[in-house]
Structures are given as structure tokens and as C-alpha cells.
């Protein structure tokens, strides 16, 4: 399969072909999603919640992102792989952002990094872009700022719609190659999608974005709770529970391992 590259994202927008993105945090899921034809894989700092058992994304470290990103980039043959810059790895300014992003690019093999923020992150986006590192921006609800935003809440309603649109233009002018829009009113996301050149990837941002992204455990039905903007496309949690129960039953009853699973002397 031909590798998805940055110009393919732009071409998809121009042709009106919707882009698909899922998170992945390890080689197992990266291979599965890549083989399923998912265009973009995001090594998201949502791994803090989904994989590491944290309540927020804030504790996730650059080292943790790098380990996961190396696994995902190594397993994906076609997908465009993006790694999140975690909280604390870029806010201090363009130099800190560049140092963090250079580490990610040198040590993992991903195609791009993602960072949160509009106007406030423009110097960082410009510095990385000028260094040849593609940047995906992330606007709307930005989980790394959840303490300031008061938790997961729709951003860009009313007067704030204009602000988020300006942010979208600003990050595009700074060099962002795509923009994630999270929990943004559908009409606002639609207007941003029309106005900016680069693809918008929505999560809780309605159907008019150029692409969609979901956290894979939400998409696969792994948790007991699913955000309103997500949809369970499978019941993998229930399937895994059933497999583990069957395994335990067969071990306890002596059915597994059978003769064929054992070795002769
Ligand atoms: O970390 C993540 O999973 C994300 C997506 C929600 C866009 O940033
Ligand atoms: Na993230």
C-alpha cells in the first residue's frame, strides 16, 4: 500500500474525499487499523486516560509518547502517523517545542506532531513547520487545558465562534497541515472547513469536517461509557471478556491445553 503523505491529505480535501483517523498507542492496534485502511493514526495523549488509567491527559510524558509512537510508526505501513506533543513539552515557546518535536521525529518515525492551541501556539507551529516538521493543530476543546476550560465542554458557541475561526486561520498561516476540531458546534466547524485550505478533522464537530477522528477504545466499544459524540462500532470489550472467561473455563476444566497444544518428549 502506498504511504499516505502530507500532500495526500490536502488532495483528499480538494477532491472531497473524507479522511479517517483513529488513535493507536501500540503495534497491535496500529497494524489492525492500518490494514483496515484508516488513513491517519494518532498517538494521542488520550493514552493517559485510555491506557494508563489517569483521569486526564496531563501526566503523559514525552518519553511515554515516544515509546508508543515508535511502536505505532513501526507497525503502520500505509497510514500517516501523528504523535501528540504532551502537556508541558511545548508551551514554554518555540525552542522547547522544537526540542520536543525533534526528539519525536528522530526517535519514532512518525510523519507529524500535533499540539493544542490556536493563536497562543502560532510561534511553535511556525518554528516546527520551518524546521520541516509537519504540524497538526488542535482547536476547540483542548484536553490539556481542561482545568482552565472547566472540563469537556463545547467550545466556540456564540461570540467564541469568531475567535475559533480566527485561530483556525492563524494556525493555517503558521504552517499547520491539518486541524483537529474537538467539541465545536457543527455549523462553526463547517464554516472553518470552508474557509481554511488545510483539512479539518472533527471529533464532536459534526459531519462537514474533511475527516473524522475517534479514540479507538470509544470506536470499538471497550469502555462502559461512550462520549455523546462517539459511536460504538463494535463491542470489543464484551468480546474480550467472553474470550477471557472461555479461556479460564477451559483451563479450570482441563480442556485447554489439548493434545495438539502440547509438545512430545
Ligand atoms: O489524544 C487524543 O486522542 C486526541 C484526539 C481526541 C484528537 O487528541
Ligand atoms: Na490529544
Automatic annotation (TrEMBL):
Mg(2+) binds at residues 45, 84, 116. Its EC number is 2.1.2.11. It is an enzyme of class 2 (transferase). It comes from the Bacteria. Binds 1 Mg(2+) ion per subunit. It is found in: Cytoplasm. 3-methyl-2-oxobutanoate binds at residues 45-46, 84, 114. The active site is at 182 (proton acceptor). Keywords: Cytoplasm, Magnesium, Metal-binding, Pantothenate biosynthesis, Transferase. Pathway: Cofactor biosynthesis; (R)-pantothenate biosynthesis; (R)-pantoate from 3-methyl-2-oxobutanoate: step 1/2. Its cofactor is Mg(2+). Signal peptide: none annotated. The keyword Cytoplasm applies. SUPFAM superfamilies: Phosphoenolpyruvate/pyruvate domain. It catalyses: (6R)-5,10-methylene-5,6,7,8-tetrahydrofolate + 3-methyl-2-oxobutanoate + H2O = 2-dehydropantoate + (6S)-5,6,7,8-tetrahydrofolate. Homodecamer; pentamer of dimers. Belongs to the PanB family. Catalyzes the reversible reaction in which hydroxymethyl group from 5,10-methylenetetrahydrofolate is transferred onto alpha-ketoisovalerate to form ketopantoate. This is 3-methyl-2-oxobutanoate hydroxymethyltransferase. It comes from Cellulomonas dongxiuzhuiae.
Amino acid at each position: 500500500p502506498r504511504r499516505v503523505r502530507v500532500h495526500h491529505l490536502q488532495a483528499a480535501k480538494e477532491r472531497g474525499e473524507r479522511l479517517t483517523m483513529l488513535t493507536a498507542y501500540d503495534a497491535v492496534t496500529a497494524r489492525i487499523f492500518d490494514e483496515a485502511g484508516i488513513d491517519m493514526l494518532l498517538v494521542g495523549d488520550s493514552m493517559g486516560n485510555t491506557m494508563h488509567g489517569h483521569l486526564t491527559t496531563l501526566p503523559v510524558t514525552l518519553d511515554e509518547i515516544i515509546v508508543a509512537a515508535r511502536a505505532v510508526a513501526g507497525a503502520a505501513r500505509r497510514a500517516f502517523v501523528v504523535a501528540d506533543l504532551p502537556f508541558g513539552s511545548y508551551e514554554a515557546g518555540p525552542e522547547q517545542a522544537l526540542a520536543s518535536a525533534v526528539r519525536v521525529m528522530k526517535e519514532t518515525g512518525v510523519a507529524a506532531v500535533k499540539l493544542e492551541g490556536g493563536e497562543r501556539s502560532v510561534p511553535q507551529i511556525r518554528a516546527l513547520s520551518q524546521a520541516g516538521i509537519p504540524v497538526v493543530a488542535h482547536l476547540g476543546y483542548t484536553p490539556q487545558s481542561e482545568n482552565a476550560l472547566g472540563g469537556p465542554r463545547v467550545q466556540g458557541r456564540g461570540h467564541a465562534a469568531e475567535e475559533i475561526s480566527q485561530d483556525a486561520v492563524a494556525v493555517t498561516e503558521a504552517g499547520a497541515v491539518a486541524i483537529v476540531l474537538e467539541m465545536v458546534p457543527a455549523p462553526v466547524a463547517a464554516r472553518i472547513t470552508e474557509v481554511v485550505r488545510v483539512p479539518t478533522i472533527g471529533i464532536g464537530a459534526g459531519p462537514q469536517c474533511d475527516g473524522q477522528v475517534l479514540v479507538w477504545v470509544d470506536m470499538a466499544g471497550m469502555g462502559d461509557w461512550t462520549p455523546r459524540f462517539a459511536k460504538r462500532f463494535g463491542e470489543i470489550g464484551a468480546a474480550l471478556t467472553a474470550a477471557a472467561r472461555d479461556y479460564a473455563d477451559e483451563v479450570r476444566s482441563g480442556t485447554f491445553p489439548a493434545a495438539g497444544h502440547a509438545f512430545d518428549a
